[in-house]
Amino acid sequence: MSKATFYEHFANKEACILVLFDEASTETLRAMAEATVAAGDDPRARLRAGINAFLDMLAEHPAEAQTLLVEIIGAGAAGVERRDRVMAAFAAAIDAENEAAARSGALTRFASPDDSFAVVGAVTELASRQLRQGRPADVRELRPVVERVLLGMTLTPQDE
């Protein structure tokens, strides 16, 4: 697109990044929610479905993943605020799934309100490192690591 057309739609590059971030995060959260619901009632299946949906979205949309996980940091205060809000939404979704799983007796409740943020931080860093360094070659190869991080914090005593 020409510069003139670009600036008809966006005030500057940061505004464009913010729009891309909003779209990417909305679609990713939607895909995760849909996958979790489709997985049924089994808490572990629901958590795995959310993980798979997240990693599949990153793999299928690498440019958007780059914006979602890496470039948003450079978009100033508005970018940081949006990133914080989305990370909180990811953490809230994980916490809600954990709470439901704990009520059913399938998994233990997180030890701290910060546990869901720790999971989000770990997963975000793993995925952004993959985008920056290309290791592993496919972001979906992180599934077992992400699953160990998430489920490792929620095993019932008989599972340990």
What topology does this entry show?
Elements: H1 3-9, H2 13-38, H3 43-60, H4 62-69, H5 76-104, H6 115-133, H7 143-152
**Structural class by secondary-structure content:** mainly alpha
Query: What's the alpha carbon Rg, rounded to whole Å?
Result: 17 Å
Helical stretch tally: 7
> What number of domains?
1
Determine the fraction of residues in helical runs and give it as a percent range.
over 70%
Determine the CATH topology. Answer: Tetracycline Repressor, domain 2
Low-confidence stretches: none
Just give the CATH class: Mainly Alpha
Overview of this protein structure:
The protein has one domain: Tetracycline Repressor, domain 2 (Orthogonal Bundle), CATH 1.10.357. Helix content is 73%, strand content 0%. It has helices at 3-9, 13-38, 43-60, 62-69, 76-104, 115-133, 143-152. The longest helix has 29 residues, at 76-104. It is elongated and about 60 Å long.
List keywords for this structure.
single chain, Tetracycline Repressor, domain 2, mainly alpha, about 160 residues
Quick synopsis:
By secondary structure, the chain is mainly α.
